[in-house]
Amino acid sequence: MGSLEDVNDLRDWLGLAQEMGEVRTLSGAHWDKEIGAASEVNYRLPSPPALLFDAIEGYAPGQRVLTASMANARRLGMTLRLGTDLDDRGLVEALRTRPGEWVDSAHKYPAQEVDSGPVCENVVRAPDADLLAFPVPKWHEADGGRYIGTGCAVFTTDPDTGVLNAGAYRMQVQNGGRAASINMEAGKHGAAHVRAWFAREGRAPVTVSLGHDPLLLVVAGTEVPTGLSELEYAGAVRRRPVEVVRGEVTGLPVPAYSEIVLEGWLYPDRKEPEGPFGEWTGYYSGGVEPVLTMDVERIYHRDDPIQLGAPPGKPPHDYSYMRSVMKSAMIQDALVRAGLPGVEGVWAHEVGGGRQLLAVAIKQSYAGHARQAGYLTSQLPSAAYMNKFVIVVDADVDPRSLNDVMWAVCTRTDPAEDIETMRQTWGSRVDPLRAPGLPPFNTRAVIDACRPWTRLADFPRVAESGRELLDHVVRRWPDVLGGSR
């Protein structure tokens, strides 16, 4: 079997995943809704495999689309170079302290510029550049069009510092394949870069990778600290630099081992109607609104390129598991680094898209500890975007179990005393509660589901067996009770 150290691109990743028995191939699907629907069915399996679509209707065999790349612990652990045989608990344990360590060591792994790479096997220049030469799916039944950007990494730079940012934004094919709209959230780093370029030069350079080592989707889809390049962060995870080539038009770097790369410019007045699109909240969002659109100046692609798809939707969806794991690890690491004592665990629940419902387990050590944990978590940079509920529980509650968390809410929360709200916090345009035309504020609740500090000594004892006794009966009757604990 190949090793994690050998994984350099999507093809290496796919080969290792296939050796692990983690990939299923589906042939003959149509790009119009069938790929999306089959992916949706797959996400709802107990441990969904990666799904590789080939021989897509209307396109030559070899032009493939991959979905559910990191929808279980084994493949996410592989992607993060943590191991190839991790379960959920093992993955969470392996990730402890890692996000902070990756941030601290990222400067040691600057992107390495090379003269050429596999992505340069084919270079298509405008006006011949056509995005619909690739089997771009229409993912959901009511989507406004075909979305080439779901598992993408959109690259922008800070015009003052040159720091590169990678973000995962939805991208709809426009103008019959000659352009693509890029729907950036206003509070994201990429949008700030674009505004700065507009103010400085009246246009903004952009490149987009559409197929790559799924690690780049992880770093593009989570909040890496301001001023830190996602490519350097990815290098820290890999423990070796990411190789890049310079685009012919903008000069921006792009991964040399990408499957497909787009290059062009954004202009303040260049917009196309975009949406709606089935978003990670589980609802269609956006209606039809004008969105910044890039006319494609260059397409670079490998022979028989593979698109990395990551369509959102009602959870669980393509990247909800990945986001839950990564956000949980990043938030827990940030709480520890902020000096909060007694942090036992954090889980960003998949039902809330890994953002809207956070559970934090603490070992209470002073009056006000639970509220401090809740308020601090709700506004951490790694947690603040579109968070709606932070639930703080005692250390005897598993924050990963929604059943246990809600049991704690039902039995340890006094609604009149233990639920506090914060208003006009950082929301999103994709929030189904946001009325059209209003700013993307949201409201969030901090729920104290810990035993009351004043009643720790006399609060009723939980009616459950101890861990040693549970382990004993499972070991005695493993065939009936499910194996070793």
TrEMBL record:
InterPro entries: UbiD, UbiD-like_C, UbiD_Rift_dom. GO terms for molecular function: carboxy-lyase activity. One of its GO terms (biological process) is ferulate metabolic process. GO terms for cellular component: cytoplasm. It comes from the Bacteria. Residues 114-315 form the 3-octaprenyl-4-hydroxybenzoate carboxy-lyase-like Rift-related domain. Residues 321-449 form the 3-octaprenyl-4-hydroxybenzoate carboxy-lyase-like C-terminal domain. This is 4-hydroxy-3-polyprenylbenzoate decarboxylase. It comes from Actinacidiphila guanduensis.
